[in-house]
Amino acid sequence: MENINRYFAGEVDVVVIGAGHAGVEAALASARMGVETLMLTMSLDSIVALSCNPNIGGTGKGHLVREIDALGGEMAINIDKSFIQSRMLNTSKGPAVHSLRVQADKKKYHMEMKKVIEDQPNLRLMQGEVVDIVIEDHKVSGVVTRTGGLYKCKAVILASGTYLKGMVYLGEFGYSSGPDGMFPSNLLSDSLKDKGFNLRRMKTGTPARVHKDSIDYSVMVVQPGDEEVVPFSFMNEDKDLDREQVPCYLTYTTEKMHEIIRKNLHRSPMYAGEIEGKGPRYCPSIEDKVVRFSDRDRHQVFIEPEGLSTKEMYVQGVSSSLPEEVQMEMYKEVIGLENVKIMRPAYAIEYDAVDATALKRTLEHKDIGNLFFAGQINGSSGYEEAAAQGLVAGINAVQNIKGKEPFILDRSEAYIGVLIDDLVTKETEEPYRMMTSRAEYRLTLRQDNADLRLTKKGYELGLVTEERYQRTLNKEKAVKEEIERLKNVKLNPTAEVNSKLEELGTSHLKTQISLYELIRRPEFDYEITSIFDPDRETLSREIKVQVEIQIKYEGYINKQMIQVEQFKKLENKKLDQNLDYSLVKGLSNEAVQKLNSIKPDSVGQASRISGVSPSDINVILIYLEQMRRKDLSQ
Ligand SMILES: Cc1cc2nc3c(=O)[nH]c(=O)nc-3n(C[C@H](O)[C@H](O)[C@H](O)COP(=O)(O)OP(=O)(O)OC[C@H]3O[C@@H](n4cnc5c(N)ncnc54)[C@H](O)[C@@H]3O)c2cc1C
To answer: Alpha helices of 489-613 — where are they, by DSSP H?
Structure first.
């Protein structure tokens, strides 16, 4: 670590390193919970930079955004202010996978968030590169900046994204850099390595940005936004988001393009073996697609606007690290891009990430007190995944400082719980992207009920405002009352009722039923039954959605709640994180090695560690019972 003349620059409670999606949520949470917070970042002009796709949400990711909002985070409110197109995905499927996905105006998203940070009491924002984290007696005590500032503090949250030892690759050209031409963060990486942190290389890539006027839209399929826009934030009404939307466009790659790629694969740093880091499986580069899906003669490409005040268009689906020279040729072979003008070439970035299994489910390091890690540095990929981790790290830094209970969400409570549990329990080789298929209890973890699941918790933490809390209580009450009312609105098998049912093409009533029971019929929903319900009051879309889902999926939801109870049994069997598993007789060697390295905090978490078998779990349960009896007998 090069010698830097330090000067005492100040003392705060929490220092957040990085103003990306993770850093910002961490800093706002910490400041809103009442502690003095300093956020240091390489450039104030890249606060919450959307360095890759210009959209927020999508399958699984939309759920995270709603949960962040329900807990009092900022991402949903910020995107509601800066979206330029909105679509609800998967509406033909069940509510568990309905996911909001919106296009962001990148500049506006940045500016709106910067305003919120600048106006936030207890939060100081400063441009500066952190080059060292000061650790005394296995606990953090401060940070040092490149310009010599020593900031003393009680907790540090490191959210450095894709900057640590950032290396950008375009074919044979590889150079030290952060994303979008920003400086990399090399000195901090060296300092972490010197301190013995286990860092590994990861990689991600992004496509080119091309000029709007160089595209032939006439050969593409227009992808408009939804007519009815649903807010991401529970604090917004539909009418608050009424604005003009801009379209995206669907087009395709061609066999000719695939040919160019195959001919130049040897010049791709990925295939030439120059990049050691693993890339995100679910955001493959175009090279990967052409190699992995060689039977396909075309791949979908979405042309997405980057904002209202720019002519840059994002070419979704064609991220690459091939040489610029090849990119100039290959992008022209996308249908409609024959005359395309590239404004920013595609590139891949390789960066240092920590081994997240060294972290607790609070995202605190297991061996260094009050040092938290959040975001891409933990091996995840995506703005939403980063923001969710930042929020949890920020909350727990404050809980630690205030000597309060750690804030942990488990897999049955939130997608955030699934995300963090997966990161700290399962060794991820490649950047981790959230998907609904990762959540075993997804029917109860829907995006529409995130507030009913989490807002109370945010309120108890002091993060959620009184207004938001009351709003959620009112919604909960209104849903309960309406369901109760529908149970008491009886329909009799009269001629009038049966003729209306006939008009609707469904079977006659033979006995009296309630509207509640009628709504459960597959061919019915809450809206259709209004013809049998003259006293019905007008309720908000949000409440109607809740009523309908809770009625129609009651059986499945109840079944899932029974599974959740089972899950909680093992989750509540706590394990001492200092236990030496070599002392537990009957465990397999692999289990002893894995358990001693990951130090699970519960039997439930232990059961999810790869290499720990069900019989190992039985051995642990027997061991716990023996210890319990031994304690009782003493
Ligand atoms: C090229 C590229 C391609 C991507 N592709 C995808 C994709 O396909 N799919 C997807 O889901 N996501 C993708 N992403 C990832 C997405 O951008 C990140 O997941 C997200 O930005 C992570 O948020 P974060 O807060 O962890 O880090 P970032 O948003 O990267 O923010 C990190 C912040 O830390 C600051 N910082 C770093 N080091 C220091 C230091 N030493 N001192 C002070 N400040 C520091 C930086 O200035 C920055 O503000 C891509 C990102 C890049 C760059």
So the answer is: 495-503, 515-520, 541-552, 554-571, 589-598, 603-606
Task: Provide, rounded to the nearest whole percent, the portion of the chain with pLDDT above 90.
Answer: 91
Res 166 pLDDT > 70: yes
Name the CATH topology of 483-556.
Arc Repressor Mutant, subunit A (1.10.10)
The total number of residues shown for the chain amounts to 634
User: Does position 406 have pLDDT exceeding 70, yes or no?
Assistant: yes
For atom 13 of ligand 1, the residue with the nearest CA is 382
Is residue 209 within 6 Å of ligand 1 at its C-beta?
no
The pLDDT of residue 324:
97
First vs last Cα of the chain: how many Å apart?
52
The string of DSSP letters for 567-592 reads: HHHHHTSB--TT--GGGSTT--HHHH
CB atoms within 10 A of CB 426: 15
| Strands in 190-341 per DSSP E | 199-206, 209-211, 221-223, 248-252, 300-305, 312-316
* pLDDT attached to residue 161: 98
The fold adopted by the segment(s) 7-203+352-461 is FAD/NAD(P)-binding domain (3.50.50)
**CB-side exposure of 335: number of CA atoms within 13 Å?**
17
Question: d(Cα 436, Cα 443) in Å, to the nearest integer?
Answer: 10
- In 3D, which of 124, 20, 29 has the Cα closest to residue 68? 29
pLDDT at 153 over 70: yes
* Ligand 1 geometric centre to CA of 162 (Å): 5
Rounded CA separation 129/127 (Å) = 7
Residue 375, phi then psi, degrees to nearest 5: 95, -155
CB of 205 sitting under 6 A from ligand 1: yes
**CATH of the domain spanning 573-633:** 1.10.150.570
- Domain ranges for the chain, please list them: 7-203+352-461, 209-350, 483-556, 573-633
pLDDT (average), residues 117-144: 98
Q: Is the CB of 52 under 6 A from ligand 1?
A: yes
Find out whether the beta carbon of 55 lies less than 6 Å from any atom of ligand 1.
no
Q: Is the pLDDT of residue 1 over 60?
A: no
